[in-house]
Amino acid sequence: MQRPLGELVDPPRWAEIAQTALSDWLASERGEQRVLQGWRDAVAWLEQQDQTVGEALAPEIREAIEEVVAQPYSPDPAVLRRTIDREPVRKLVREILHDTLVDFGKKVSAPVASSGVTRGLGAFGSRAGDRFRKRAGVLGALAEEAIGAVGSELEKQLDRKATEFADTALSSVIGQFVEVLSSPDRSEDQAAFRKALLQGVWAWSGPEAATELRRGDPDGTARIVRRVAEAWVGREDAEEQIAGWLEELLYEHGHRTLAAVLEEIDLLDSFRTHAGDLVRQRAHAFVGGDPFAAWLHELVQEAK
What we know:
- By secondary structure, the chain is an all-alpha fold.
- The protein has a domain at about 75-180.
- It is about 80% helix and about 0% strand.
- Helix 3 (about 30-45) runs antiparallel to helix 11 (about 205-215) and helix 6 (about 75-85) packs across helix 9 (about 125-180).
- The longest helix is centred in the middle third of the chain and has 60 residues, at about 125-180.
- The chain is elongated and about 110 Å long.
């Protein structure tokens, strides 16, 4: 407890142990399957729950999470814009704008014959249209074709104009989105938005949460994580990098004792109590075991 951390921790040796342990685990198929089985067990447990996700959490944990997300926080506008102003996001927003404008335009430019007023005439309107077509003959048929052609051309024009407008308005929409999410003047609205999303997740039932977790393809995700971890651990400088992290930590705290560090975070008394109990339990188990008794008996016999 009174020895400096720098004497207790040997960065190169600990780095070697960490890399070896990671390599062995990543090379083990059973290790990956055990992790996946734990995931499947958790999902199966959720599926059997009658409670919602929020009800399954301890109230103290749920309230603490809600308090954290409700804290006033507004991201930097420039950082937020760089984060979301990407081509896939622009493509999605462009499609939403285009489709919304086209649908609205079709409703506005719909022919009177399909309007609510004409539909309200019911059978009377239909009979009137039939009488008009019979009396108009060829001229009526040509008129209907002309109306259809005009409608088709209007739809083409509408589609083109909607595309042009969506392209023009895209940057403005993203800019407004960034402003809404980053303006300090709207920090209360932003906090309410985050809290509302969280409460929406709390309201998921157990089976709903299980279904959403299954959509994530845990087997595929595990393979990706394992592949990336193997690539990193297999690098020539991986062990050196781990040792570097430990050395940076020790550079600041290596001269301090473990007791001083624990005392600073108010854990020294608790650590001493629990560590002492644990050492005594292990010592009793070791001394009371048959191997120790056999060793002690042999040692006594040799001393005679």
